Amino acid sequence: MDLPKIGSVLPEFLSPAEVDLLLALPEDAIEEPLTLRNTAMLHLLYATGIRVSELVNLPVQDCSLNGGFVRIFGKGSKERIIPFNEEAGQRIAAYLEQSRPLLLGQKSSRFLFITRQAKAMTRIRFWQIIGEMARQRGISKTVSPKTMRHSFATHMLAGGADLRALQMMLGHSDISTTQIYTHVDKSHLKAAHEQFHPRG
What we know:
Blueprint: H1 16-23, H2 33-48, H3 52-56, E1 63-64, E2 69-73, E3 79-83, H4 86-104, H5 123-136, H6 145-158, H7 163-170, H8 175-178, H9 187-196
Antiparallel strand pairs: 1-2, 2-3
Helix pairs in contact: 2-4, 2-6
């Protein structure tokens, strides 16, 4: 006898307005090194959809500001190149110019995003930071790095992104893993139906 199938839990994601609220940099914190770092990390996370482990372990040399992309070695050491937008590039540049030298002091690090001890941030610490930032901005949802990854994927599909391209950016070995996002936000399906169906 076959066991009943258990439905997949749909990932929680933020609306574009909630993402904008989370990514906004408070005017009174423009010169705060940790705030610039945290904001740059959030922008890169949402711009690329990379995993939190990939974010905190990203080497400086694998982030190209000129090219506007990051090189990620994900599960199974599979390499993928993911572009990021201009605003994310600007946030990272500001962090590199103003914050990272102060955090480094006389030390050196191969990691792009570092702590006051010039070490790579832990996944747990970034989970705490992103949750704190969400609460400070009045976002009631529980926000984590996974929430940002899910938001990236959902918003990309809603904007008309190709499922195969999204699979490559997310680093999914099986496209069925990526397809879960087609069930999260069906607004783009309705729009496509209205556009292409003869009686839409």
